[in-house]
Amino acid sequence: MKFSINRASFVKALNIVQRAISSKTTIPILTGLKIDVSPNHILLTGSNADISIQTTISGDNPDNDLTISDTGSIVLPARFFGKIVKKLPGNELSIEVGDNFQTNINSGNSDFTINGLDANGYPHLPEVNTDNTVDLPAEIFKEVIGQTVIAVSKQESRPILTGVHFTLNQNQLVAVATDSHRLSQRKVDLPKEDDGEYDVVIPGDSLKELSHMLDGEKEQIKMNLSENQVMFNFGVTRFYSRLLEGNYPDTSRLIPNSSVTKVQFSAAYLLAAVERASLLSHESRNNVIKLSIKPNDKVVTITGNSPDVGKVEEDLDPKKVEGEELEISFNPDYMKEALRAFGQIDVEVGFTSALRPFTIVPTDEQEEFIQLITPVRTF
After folding, report:
1. For all residues of the chain together, what is the average pLDDT?
2. Residues of the domain holding 283
3. d(CA 97, CA 72)
4. pTM for this model (two decimals)
């Protein structure tokens, strides 16, 4: 195996697949980077058994300046190899594999030799059926991930809740996550009729990693499913993730259909107020802030209290308030994460009672996005 390539192009591809490589894996060869060299392209693969990433460096792209002398495959220790390649002095990188998988890395006046491994020992990536494909704009899918993954559970006691539940039916994609204290649900209408019906749970950690990779991606992302794997295809990159096994709880019954008290704010305005109130609540053992609503007086007050430090009270300026008087306490961290997911738009917070979960939705009803937060009993 022997090739030369523009070093910057190789480093860019290397950075992508290294996201999937971990030094903590129980399968030693997975600490390595797999390089497959074909007559006209190079395929880089990284995996930690939970997620796998493949990206292609094409010889057809003149920016890559790729010259392939001999084809073949090798697995190189990712940590050392990555550091070496990124610190080499020249613009061109040459890699040649000799006897016993000894690999020579050359750039400028610098010459490294490191020990590689036989690529035949690298686990095969899962076969994923590409017949049924769900197409989504990458920007929209990144937004869906950002809005739902905040509510996945961090507790392994119920593994199914550590993922986001995706269902597709009659060309509507629904993504839901809950940790039993809060819930986030986003619906997206797909542009074309899709015959397939899907019901899968994708680990939250996998989706966070995928989201980072979609930064700046403007094209479509294709989602393909097999029995226990999902593959996302975008640009020259493929991202594989295992699926979580089990039945996700029916969350639709948790979302109230009506509310007795409604308040409208700019999401950014309410977020800033909650952040101020939480400055003191974080010093308290229970980390709770309180919202007092008096619709007849058009008064909404937010209160944070720590017996050891002090108290904060702020009168808010809602854009609209209606319904019954209410006092409700909640975890400010849940509220902050929920509000950040809305960005700069206006939201409506709807309450049914002081002890029932309340909802946060956009005032623009065109966008089907809802956050649900369970209040905290303070008496």
Report:
1. 93
2. 255-373
3. 9
4. 0.91
